[in-house]
Amino acid sequence: MADSDSSVDIVYGIDDEPPMRESIPLGLQHILAMILPNIAPPLIIAGAVGLATGQTTFLVQMALLFAGIATIVQAMPIGPVGARLPIVMGTSFAFVGAIIGVATQYSLSAAFGACVVAAVVEIFIGWKFEWFEEYFTPLVNGLIVVIIGLYLIPVGMDYLAGGVDASNYGAPVNLAVGGLVFVIAIGLNQLFDGYLRVLSLLIGIVAGYVAAAALGIVDFSPIAEAAWFAYPTPLKFGIAFEPVPILILGVIYVTTSMETIGHISAITAVEDRKPEESELKGGLLADGVMSGVAGLFGAFPNTSFAQNVGVVTFTGIMSRIVVAVGGGILVLLGFVPKVSAVFSTMPNPVLGGATLVMFGMVLSNGFKILNDNVNLNQRNMVIIAASIGLGLGVATRPEILQQLPEQAQTFFGEAVVVTALVSLILDNVIPKSPDEVDESTTTELGPKATVDNDD
Q1: What is the DSSP letter of 4?
Q2: How far apart (Å, rounded) are the C-alpha atoms in residues 399 and 416?
Q3: What is the rounded average pLDDT for all residues in the chain?
Q4: Domain containing residue 158
Q5: What's the rounded Cα separation, in Å, for the pair 411 and 414?
Q6: Does residue 68 lie in a domain region?
Q7: DSSP letter assigned to residue 90
Q8: Residue 15, phi then psi, degrees to nearest 5
Q9: Residue 309 lies in a domain
Q10: Which helix (H) or strand (E) holds 283?
């Protein structure tokens, strides 16, 4: 139950088992937070490569199904595979540009082949994490969490305004609906206790959806058009193996490994501690293994979802049982398109109001990791400045890369990639001061007072 030493009011701990009457709505709250971002990558990729409607629907269903299976594995490990933490998995945006490029230049089957083979990179990092652990310090992990929150906040704002390509972008009705979700979620979370607090996001989303329906901005046609049942078909799009695509996706798997480490660090920071090595290894193994298996069935690589880290922090619900229930809901949706179509009708402003809260909480978690674990001396402040400056810079001004080859634009245009690489390189190249605590060898997260701050 609640941890009095934690800076977050933990309602249910990692191993707590809330009654099913609570676990189901709490798990549903997680699914509502990630459902549209999870199905967005297959929709974007399908549109870019010109897939037919039936093929696109299949990609979406597999995205739901394997996100659910991967989530369950993370919460309820199979041997060493799984972090045993409340981690919600979903289709990774990091691979979208590269997969589109590979599918366009080679074929979709080559893209799936690369997804499967390159997953070995993350599996190896997880398997031999002790070889890499010293490079993934709290400074690096904290910066990754910070940049994830920073670059996702504009995404939340775009959703709230109606969507980037919406003809009524920024319309008062969109701002009103999104603002309603935002205000209800914040208000219930901070002014009430009990169910109203822990279900604040769900209540806000439901209220926003009802308001949007009353205002006539919900399109219910996908529900009528969806089938009642769908099942996974292995190698539906074929599989091919090309060296260059495998190399490209292999590099991206390295960056998503760092992103997963950042998310795991953010989740354990809720308990004011660093992640244990077994949690990091298990999380990375599950990320890699499940991404490889997903590729065999027509789903794109999975990764831990930042918005659900925000849900955990915002609500104080750390229970992995709740997340496993949420994974089960995703699996159900993966087999029943008619039900999942209901979620696909959620208007962008409703999602935007909720994600703004969650992405902001992710950013706050990144600051917490840095504040609690990193000696903010000149060396580290320079690394923070360079990493965030370059990462946020390419996110806000991607045109500076337009003279580079297309694959380089795709790779270096990712804020998380740039921040991760810059912080990883600088933190392991610039010498530490003699009296600085070596975060990479610290296993317990203590209060800031335990860190030597004489510099």
Answers
A1: T
A2: 17
A3: 82
A4: 20-370
A5: 6
A6: yes
A7: E
A8: -100, 5
A9: yes
A10: helix 277-296
